């Protein structure tokens, strides 16, 4: 994987909606993040959008006791902060909330009106200043990446964070191959779908497969992503039980026949599909 090969596994911890509850819930979320870190899950994905900075603040509280160099912190900025001055201000605020002086990866949250040339140039400048180690994009389709490809700093795009799960496989047709060709890491958000993680309609054949493999349905569909070593999955890290279940999913093995069951229930695309986002 192009991003932080020396320390990054293919399982991280997402933080959407974290830090937005009461003190009891926040303490539970901090415990979950620390539980994951203590077990080698050192990638934490957040964004200035999440709770208007509340998620970044919670992550900052969770990581104070750890060696910063052992962590891989990802954050994202709004498209309307994608010019040089606003981007620098957004990054400064994110770093303050996180309690760190650099990010490992900084992403444009989704395409906006600022010319991509300006955005990539500004990101390169932040990298040169040592405020970010790497940069990339999120929710970019092939068309968006092609529009950026003429820019001098296109080759420095390290990652594209996209919606990807068993029920949202359209990117397999062209975007994931594009990532591989251009050495862009894929970060898969919402591996269980949106909301409470039960948005994906699970047919009985998949429920039976999970039962036969003695795993939960969530573990099954997460492990289906994790088996692809070139994809980083970032399920939400809201409780210790969820983190442990996600860690256990890393050890699930698949046979060709089992993979064909997934393809039967959730067919791979055979044509271009619009990029889905949440």
From TrEMBL:
Gene3D superfamilies: NADP-dependent oxidoreductase domain
Binding site for substrate: 109
Catalytic residues, chain numbering: 50
Swiss-Prot/TrEMBL site (Lowers pKa of active site Tyr) positions: 76
Sequence ranges assigned to domain NADP-dependent oxidoreductase in this UniProt record: 11-264
Gene Ontology MF: a single term: oxidoreductase activity
InterPro entries: AKR, NAD(P)_OxRdtase_dom_sf, NADP_OxRdtase_dom
Protein's recorded name: ARA1 protein
The organism's taxonomic lineage, starting at the top: Bacteria, Bacillati, Bacillota, Bacilli, Lactobacillales
